[in-house]
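[User] I have long wanted to understand how a fold can be written as tokens. Those tokens are not coordinates but codes from a learned vocabulary of shapes. Could you go through the record with me and say what the backbone is doing? Thank you; the sequence and its tokens follow:
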Amino acid sequence: MSTEIRQLQPQQLWNKFADINVIPRGSKKEARIIAFMKEFGKNLGLETIEDEVGNVIIKKPATPGMENRTTVVMQSHLDMVHQKNSDTEFDFDTQGIDMFIDGDWVRAKGTTLGADNGLGVATIMAILESTDIEHPAIEALFTIDEETGMTGAMGLKGGLLTGGILLNLDTEEDDEIGVGCAGGVDITATRSYNEEETPEFKIGYSIEVKGLQGGHSGMQIHEGLGNANKIMNRVLFDGFENYGLRISEINGGGLRNAIPRESKTVVAIDAVHEDAFLLEMALVSNTIKKELKTMEPDLEISISKVDTPKLIMDLGVQEGVTRAIYAAINGVYRMSADIPDLVETSNNIARVIIKDGAIKIMCLTRSSVESSKMDLANTLRATFELTGCEVELSGDYPGWTPNMDSAILKVMTKLYEDLNGEKPHVAACHAGLECGILGTNYPEMDMISFGPNIKGAHSPDERAQISSAQKYWKFVLEILKEIPVK
């Protein structure tokens, strides 16, 4: 349906978005989109650079009369989150995103849309290609791997950019101007365990949690959305306590930056307790669904009989790991004492894999306060170490400290009010933006973040608002006209 998408206004923006959504561009698999962007820049006759980690920089001179304005870095990331519904047949490595229009929204069929951060990339491409848009000198920075480590931003060296202002196009509310963000750290708990042969008196069951909304583990962590890994662990804990449930394997969640939507496990229970077990599971499931009915009306917890698994977890390890997941903090840990309604520190228990004698639990802890981030990280570390896991902290990246005296903030605040008749919401966010990392090598650069309305990012419910994209595009064009002189 890309033909319909290409007819949307502004066509420059949507055409470029359709172009890049043909190209598979998952995090750490950006080779094809990097090649595409390099060819795009070179075909325009513009200076095009690929740095040593894979970031692409395209430089365009100022339009006539704008040569005395401050050079602007326009920045977005090339990669997108790959998530799909369990019943959707789709290969992210070979297929382009299948988009369609749903009223005022653009969506994808059963997968993430890639509006995060594809609309930002498309915006910059449209401006680079334009012949009639006024703008100062532009350094377009397309970073890689933002979604799974920010290694592109981390690997960008000083000296490649000369701009004094950075416009990060990665905010998802069109009335918001971002001036700060959270930092983060990955927490990975692992351990091995002995497998035991399943006793003859046990029978097999599969338990599946699905139908959750999922979403962005930073921007939506405060919304009370269900976490499939925590829900599954609650069910398993109850079954073990009352009916001798033994775990054979668990496969729950996906990417660290996505609130987990699904989890599936295979267990063995005592055959003599089968009827009572099924009754108890129905009661527990109904209780959980009742608790979450407002936020998760489509939650399903299904239980079905399967072949009895040949092997189950060592009992002691099972007891320890289910208790650790129960105890591990998930969701908001602390709200900001300085910025109203801002989540300061949180954790997402993103992935739980138990199979073939190995346990792996993956979390993402975020915070706008470095000491609080490490306090929660150490809390989780201690929780998992108490059950015999080895815990690794990796992928640590800094937050972005707000600068309320920013010159470009003042320009954009006035422009927004003039265009829309209301003040913008100037705020820090709980997501991880690249600004804090980029600022380590470019400390004097004045940075700001903004973008169109995107809902459900990092989930198959991701959607971009058409009317908001029009509003955002006008804002971008006016900002470029009003960039201060050097």
